[in-house]
Amino acid sequence: MPDRIETEGGRAQNRPDQPDREEVFEQGQLETHQQVMEEAAALARAHYEVEPGLRAIYRLEGPDPNYLRIKLLEVNEQTVPTGIMPVGFPPHPASGLHYPSVVIEVTPQEYEAIQRKELDLPAGWEVRDAYERPAGADYAGGDP
Amino acid sequence: MKQSSHAWSRAYARQAQADLDAREVLLGATVPACQHLHFLQMACEKISNAHRCQGGANPETLRHSHGFAAKVLPQIARELLRRSAFAADLEVAPRGLEAMVRQLAREVDLLAPAVDDDGRRPDNCEYPWEDDGGALHVPAEHGFGPLGTLHRHRAGATFLKIVAAAAELAGGFYAAS
Asked: Per residue in B76-115, pLDDT tens?
């Protein structure tokens, strides 16, 4: 028995006892998006724990061929200043990371240049909310 | 040798960039870590060669040399700091950055089958190896220590940034000089 039936107007409908495929698809997308967000937060926490020079980590949003890729902007005072240079990492399911990620790591001075629009992020990418530093992950520098 | 060391340096840098681009493509694919690490290792080797060409090394013999990333990449990190327009404004000098870069670069060097620390590190990203206990290891199933978890290793992002910047520096700077 087919899951979908054709109506008079030619529009496919689900059989009454079947869930709506579009709704299921949207629900699946929402759940995937939620998982990406959770893993992004976990990755940010992990970075705070190992990088003593991190002042802040922000979520980045913008057009991306891989729309599930985690995108982070990290302000690190213990890095080399190179301008905007995204670096990619593969998924690592063993540590709970199921999606590829990309990090744009900048110095505090470069971050200020981003804010002043003197340094451009990749086209269409925008800085969103900051991730909180987990308790115990001490910042090694001055005032964050 | 007909071409100048500058031309050879640019050529190595260009090929290193192609390796980094290939690594980038693989990051979104379901492949074992050894595959994208292989491209990272090849890129670092060519970046090192680009740098060494400028130091007077014979470009044609560099094809057979391995294991110089641990020496060259920390130098490039220092050079990046020195050259940057922002460097003078750094509030805190990166602490231990060169040491971290050297450690990770050494791990990258060891990914080449020809570099094994006199047999102590047979792990590599291309060929299976047998350990002292007789167990057989396959690169496609190996974890690769800090390089396998670079996404959560201290200075992991910085290291990759230095590699990418070094490729650009070798290609761009030497092209202009």
From this structure: 888 887 766 455 555 555 668 889 999 999 999 999 999 9
Give B174's pLDDT tier (boundaries 50, 70, 90). Answer: very low
Q: Which of B12, B5, B8 is nearest to B167 (CA)?
A: B12
Distances (CA, A) of B133 to B4, B116, B129, B130, B138: 49, 17, 11, 8, 15
**Hey, how many other C-beta atoms are within 10 angstroms of the C-beta on B154?**
19
* B158 contact A CB<8A: yes
Write down the H helix ranges in chain A.
Answer: 21-50, 108-115
DSSP B10-36: HHHHHHHHHHHHHHHHHHTS---HHHH
Q: Provide the residue-wise pLDDT of chain A in tens; the chain has 144 residues.
A: 455 555 555 555 666 677 777 777 778 788 888 999 999 999 999 999 999 999 999 999 999 888 789 999 999 988 999 999 999 999 999 999 999 999 999 999 999 999 999 999 999 999 999 999 988 777 766 544
Partner residue opposite A43 with nearest CB, options B84, B151, B158 = B151
**Chain B residues with CB inside 8 Å of A75's CB?**
none
CA distance A68 to A85: 20
CB-nearest to A77 from B91, B152, B153 is B91
Is the Cβ of B25 closer than 8 Å to some Cβ of chain A?
Answer: no
B148 touches chain A (CB under 8 A): yes
* Residues A74, A72: Cα–Cα separation, whole Å: 6
Q: What pairing do the DSSP bridges indicate for beta strands A70-76 and A101-106?
A: parallel
Tokens of B141: 């199933």
d(CA A15, CA A4): 6
Transcribe B94-136 into DSSP letters: PTTHHHHHHHHHHHHHTTSTT--TTTT----SSS-EE-TTS-E
